Each structure stands twice: as C-alpha cells, then as structure tokens.
Amino acid sequence: MAVAKSTTMVLRRRTRAPKRYSEDEDGLGCEDAYCERCGSGDFGSKLLLCDKCDKGYHLFCLRPILVSVPKGSWFCPSCTNIKQPQLFPLVQTKIVDFFRIRRSSESMENQSNIKKRKRACSLAVSKRKRKLLAYNPTEDPQRRLEQMASLATALKASGTEYSDGLTYRPGMALRSANCAALEKGGMQILPKEDIETLNLCKKMMEKGECPPLMVVFDPVEGFTVQADRYIKDLTIITEYVGDVDYLKNRENDDGDSMMTLLHASNPSKSLVICPDKRSNIARFVNGINNFSPDGRKKQNVKCVRYDVNGECRVLLIANRDIRKGERLYYDYNGYEHEYPTEHFV
C-alpha cells in the first residue's frame, strides 16, 4: 500500500477465490462453461457457476462485482431476484438500541470539548509532528440518525452484528495473544496524544455522535461509504474491527474482508481481524483499483496498524482532505500484494 511515510507499512489480507468450478490446469477456461454477461469462456479461474441453473458468470462481470467465491451455495441473479436492501427504520429508539448508544446529558459538553481541543491544536508550532484528528460529527441530530440508519441497513443486509471494537470469541484467539511485542515489523507506536484522540472518537460513537459518513448501495460496487461533510487530512475515520483469530486458522477461509492485525515473527502467532460476524462501517469502505493510475488517484484513506498500549489496532485515516459526497477508498494490498483489485471500479 502506498503511504505517506516509509515507516508506515500496512498489511491487508484478502483471500483469492477458491477453485470450485471446472477449469483446466492453466485456468484458461473450459469448452462447456461461459459467462452469461460477456459470453466468454476465458478466465476460467474467475468463472462461477450457479448451484441451481449451472449458468456461469465471471466474478468481475457480476453486479455488484464479487471478489471471491461466496461461502456455501451461490445462486445467480436470475435465480435469486436480487433486490435493493431493505432500509433500516429511521426511528430513534430502534437506532439507539441497534448501536447500543448510551443516553447522556454530556453530549453537548463533549462537543464543546472537541471544539476547544481543535482550537488548542491550531496554535501548535508547524515544526511539531502532525497529530491525528478526531472526526467532527454532523451537528444535525436528524442527519446523524440517517447516517446511522444507513450503516444499520448495510449491516443487516450482510448479516453482521454491530461492534466498534475488537472481539475475542471462544475457539478463536485470546486477547492475551494480541501482543504488539510479537510484531515482525510494519507497525507504528501510537503516541499518547493520538491515543486520547482515538478514545475521544470511541466515546463520541458510544453517545451516538457518529462519523460524518453515509453508507450507500451502488449497483456495481455494492455497499460503499461516502463523506457526508468535509473531512480534513489525518482525521480518524474509524477503527477496523471484528473477531480476532489466528491466521493459521483462516488460511483456507474464503472470506473477502480479513485484515492483518499482527504480523508476528513466529507465523503461528500472526493474527487477523474477521469482520464477517461483527463489524462497523470499516467493512464497507471499498478498495481502489491499484492496477491503474486513475484508480490509485481515488485513494483518500490509508490503513495503518498501530501499537496502542501494547495491543495491535488497525485504523483507517484520511490521507488527504475529503470533500462532502466523495466516496472513501483505500488500498487493500499491503506488501503481500495478494488481493486482486484489477477489476475494481
């Protein structure tokens, strides 16, 4: 992943599509299978067959594009009658319950503290190292409800429970396994002031003061995230969260959203974040097509792994100013370069 400084090294683990279709050894296709969209039988390694009608579709010809073979059975658009996702009710009590928002009278006081913090930071001398910024929630409470409802819609449609922190489940990695001291290389230590900023973002989210982001459904890209107000460079967008597991347990997992958490010197201790069961808005931030110059220009978010008080964490951070209405994109590939993005928009 291209980053601003050489000390920033990011790992993004994604899995390639398993070969659960008929193809020759070279992946050049087969005579009796072709794509219903483009009519070609080429790219056999990316040709997916419907489990009901046996019709074939290239992963990249589907809308939205698929980047890996789904778990279990898969049915083509004709057999599933895919519809727009059902919108989450724009009802405050339902949204408060869904996101487990803490009702507090401290909300306005918290906003005031954010503004004071911003003014204080603006007085810092320019030679100091640039610090991470807390996001600025939208002032209009009704608009914030709409933003949270858009995220709830995406989570419900993907069968995902909301979580805003790393989770440790029975049968997976213990929290004690998340030890930044085991890191092989590629992780930054988050300074104390930036830890305070991260904690401030967490507290705001707990009170329903969400990041100024809207999740929208695109017929080509699927769920995607766009800025709902201006976001300044170096603003914390969100933390990448989900269930923490050992990489060795996920080597054959065909999930397309795993993120490297700990790249350990001992490979058996390496950890990944699996957001398929529990996650937040990070799951819906899309990747760039880093095979094309135009695709690389779209990147406006960077993914960075940090040592936070001895634990590994992954943050998505604005790497330039982001305009209102602009969609968020980051590079899925770290120095593994194993995630196929050549068909991304």
UniProtKB/TrEMBL annotation:
Pfam families reported for this sequence: PHD (PF00628), SET (PF00856)
Chain ranges of the SET domain: 211-333
Gene3D superfamilies, alphabetized: 2.30.30.1150, SET domain
Location of the PHD-type domain: 32-82
Assigned EC number: 2.1.1.369
Keyword field: Chromatin regulator, Metal-binding, Methyltransferase, Nucleus, S-adenosyl-L-methionine, Transferase, Zinc, Zinc-finger
Protein name (record): [histone H3]-lysine(27) N-methyltransferase
Taxonomy of the source species: Eukaryota, Viridiplantae, Streptophyta, Embryophyta, Tracheophyta
